[in-house]
Amino acid sequence: MRRVLGLLLGAVALLVACGVPEDSAPQELTAADVPFGMLTTAPTTTTTPIDLAPDREAALYFMDVEGNLRPLNREVEDRSAATVIMTLLATDSSSLPPSYSTNIPPDTTLLDSFVEDQVLTLDLSEQFTTVVGQRFIAAVAQIVYTATDLDGIEAVSFRVEGEDFPVNDENGAAVDEPVDRFDFVGLSPS
Question: Would you kindly state where each structural domain of the chain is located, as residue ranges?
C-alpha cells in the first residue's frame, strides 16, 4: 500500500512539474502571439426577450420544416383580427427563425374583414391565389389557426377581391363554408 501511495505521489509531482511555467509578472503579447480568432468579438445570435403587454402580443402560425403549424408570438399594435391578420400577411420569411417558413404569398394584403357569429370573413388581394396545392392549403391553415387563436373567432370565411372564394381543407377538398381548425387537424402543432 505504501508503495502504491509513493508511486501516486511521484506521478502527481511529475505532472505538476510538467505544467506551464509561472511568470513573475504579467507578460504583454503581440497580436502575432494571440491564437487566431481571439482578437475579435464573436457575433452573438442571442436576443433578450421583450415582455409585451398581453394586448400587444399575438400568436402567429407558421410552418416548420416537417410541414406542421407552429405558433410564434409576435408584437402587434392591438389584438383586433384585422391587425393580427395584417401582421401575419406582412411577415417576411427572412425575419423568421431558420426552421420556420410561411406559405402565404408575398404581397398578399387584407382588403377588408369583419366578424359575425364568431366567423371572421377576410377579403384578400388576388396575390393570395398565386400558390396552389399543398402550399395553398398550408397558407389557408396558417390564417385559420392565427385567426382562431383570437377571442371570439371560431372559423374563417375567405373572399378574394370581394368575391366569395372557396378554399381547400387539409385533404384538398374544396370547402364553400367557413373553415376552422378541425379542417386542418393534420397540420396542427403536436
Answer: 57-185
